[in-house]
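Handout for the seminar on molecular recognition.
Each group receives one record of this type.
Step one: identify the two inputs.
Step two: read the structure output and locate the region that could contact phenylalanine.
Step three: write two sentences on what you found, then compare them with the reference statements printed after the record.
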Amino acid sequence: MTDLASLNAQALAAIDAAASLDALEAVRIETLGKQGSVTALLKSLGQMSPEERQTQGPAINGLREAVTSAIAAKKDALESAALNARLATERLDMTLPAPDAHAGSVHPVSQVMDELAEIFADMGFAVAEGPEIEDDWHNFTALNIPETHPARAMHDTFYFPEDAGEEAKQMLLRTHTSPVQIRTMLNQKPPIRVIAPGRVYRSDSDATHTPMFHQIEGLVIDKGIHMGHLKWTLETFLKAFFERDDVVLRLRPSYFPFTEPSAEVDVGYTLVNGKRVIGGSEGWMEVLGSGMVHPRVIAACGLDPNEYQGFAFGTGVDRLAMLKYGMDDLRAFFDGDLRWLKHYGFAALDVPTLSGGVGA
Ligand code: PHE
């Protein structure tokens, strides 16, 4: 029937011309919807004579199937075109070079702390920690600095207001990392080999002192420990840290209440174009306090000083960073000046390792 043929051609043309899913839906309603032209034809089958229906039935059903599948095919095509268009707008060019300036950097103090932890880990030292808000027993008394001791005044301590109530502990901001020695000896059994890096506080401020600075403590407790072990450990550490084999140490007799004997450690430098370079022995710079742990400190931690001996040392991390990387004003460390950080900071992925080099 020409009627059916023209309807078929018309419907297929309309489907083909539909430019969007909405337009296609309108064509579907016009043909296959309740009031649609193809639906009307299907309904007319009911009024036909059986003979007529026999010829018309397959033709009308064929038309419905042709229109249905044409709509489905067009729908697929329109949907994938829409997806491709969206993907094209969301495209990321993976071949674009990444920006070469890294956004953040590791602060020199953090980097030096990581370098120190790496060096000492290689010598079998674990990292120990203690609180920055300490009580005076851990910070002073247990370290053989009784209340009347002049060393208490020397530390320019920040004290918290005294708690008047019961027999409260006097709290303070720790003035050195040495209280971590006490906490470690109280909490673990010898043999002990730890370093304790962290923040310390003293009421002091000029070009070489800031109220907050960083120290690293070292502690070894075992049987038969002597000054020779101390000297070897410090020498090995300083050679690895400054990445030079010609580092020379000088141990000068000194005094700390918590070590006996005590030694201050100087490291030798050479003048190169008027600048101090670590290595050799033209001049000396003090870098460390150290000594054999005082028997009274060992006893205060519940150990028998006749059985156990040990050595301890402490040094300023910021000072070590200044010496190694040639910085001259300690205050710049804590200014948060982006220009300074950019100049001295370390790339985030520049992780210190003994094999790859601890410094930049
Ligand atoms: N705690 C000392 C200081 O802050 C350093 C030190 C540590 C000295 C351990 C001897 C042994 O100056």
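Reference statements: The pocket of phenylalanine is lined by residues 176, 178, 217, 256, 259, 289-291, 312-314 (CB under 6 Å). The CA atoms of residues 108 and 344 lie 7 Å apart.
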